[in-house]
Design brief:
mainly beta; signal; dioxygenase; Protocatechuate 3,4-Dioxygenase, subunit A; Intradiol ring-cleavage dioxygenase; 293 residues; 5 helices; six-stranded mixed sheet; four-stranded antiparallel sheet
């Protein structure tokens, strides 16, 4: 499906914006699979869409999906966050240093609790991140901020309570949408616990022209930014959700995939891909380890 013209106009210059890389310290990403987590593993590039019709009662409405994943608010996340075993690897810790990516024009600081959805609907998602050092020891008391667009590819834009909004690009990010301009959805910051963990409740993001579906994040401590980067999803998984899930399929497939060379991730995108699994409650689990030196 063709993206609405006004949204394309707002986004088409990302081809030039996305090529700048933030001058920040090096980091390593560890993609850690675990047999104890999922009923359905979606980290491979195999299309896992089943085409099965399911109906999900969100508590307010009943939505018919062609997807095995539920549709609704994050109240549908009834499973507990998984334990730290999801981040374990069967091999010794090895650094695989890579450059951080660009912050993008749509960042501003926003405080939150673990649920950053502000009551919106979509595919409910747990986003679990673990921060470790170069020796694979967990790092506590670091701030991890995340931000991403809604199911329609628009960022929230209420900067009135933000202590850091100087780089926010306003209408470019919100598309001039009044609801977005009055909201802070899909933005938040949490402090890592003794295991280096933060856990967010959110929704699978939508897409906008010129970029593959992605989630921004930043790691900071004592007002110093350690790394600014982004996570993404496999092309196969993004296609599955965008073509079968009721909250995404009306817009169809994203126009920019990893295979077509996203202008931020380029051809070396594997280390940025989130591990994904389906929770027993039908929601999505996405997780990754962040390693800083």
């Amino acid at each position: 499906m063709t993206l609405k013209p006004e949204l394309y106009t707002r986004r088409k210059m990302l081809k030039t914006l996305g090529v700048s890389v933030a001058a920040v310290p090096m980091l390593a990403f560890l993609g850690c699979n675990s047999d104890t987590v999922s009923s359905t593993d979606t980290t491979s590039d195999t299309d896992t869409s089943t085409g099965t019709d399911t109906s999900t009662d969100t508590g307010d409405t009943t939505t018919t999906n062609d997807s095995d994943y539920v549709s609704g608010t994050t109240a549908l996340i009834t499973d507990d966050f998984p334990d730290d075993s999801i981040f374990e690897t069967s091999t010794a810790c090895v650094l695989a240093l890579t450059q951080a990516t660009t912050e993008g024009p749509c960042y501003f600081q926003a405080d939150s609790d673990e649920d950053i959805s502000d009551g919106l609907t979509g595919l409910p998602m747990m986003l679990c991140l673990q921060l470790i050092d170069s020796d694979c020891n967990p790092l506590a008391n670091y701030e991890i901020s995340v931000w991403h667009c809604d199911t329609s590819g628009i960022y929230s834009g209420d900067t009135s309570s933000s202590s850091d909004s100087s780089r926010f690009a306003g209408d470019f990010c919100t598309d001039g949408d009044a609801e977005a301009e009055a909201s802070t959805w899909y933005r938040g910051s949490l402090i890592t616990d003794s295991s280096g963990r933060v856990n967010f409740k959110t929704h699978f993001p939508g897409w906008y022209s010129g970029r593959t579906i992605h989630i921004h994040f930043k790691v900071a401590n004592n007002n110093n930014d350690y790394v600014i980067s982004q996570f993404c999803f496999t092309d196969a998984f993004a296609k599955e959700i965008c073509t079968t899930h009721s909250d995404y399929k009306s817009r169809g497939e994203q126009d920019t995939t990893l295979a077509s060379i996203d202008n931020v991730f380029g051809s070396d995108y594997e280390q940025f891909i989130l591990n994904t699994a389906q929770n027993s409650d039908g929601t999505l689990l996405a997780y990754h380890t962040i390693q800083i030196s």
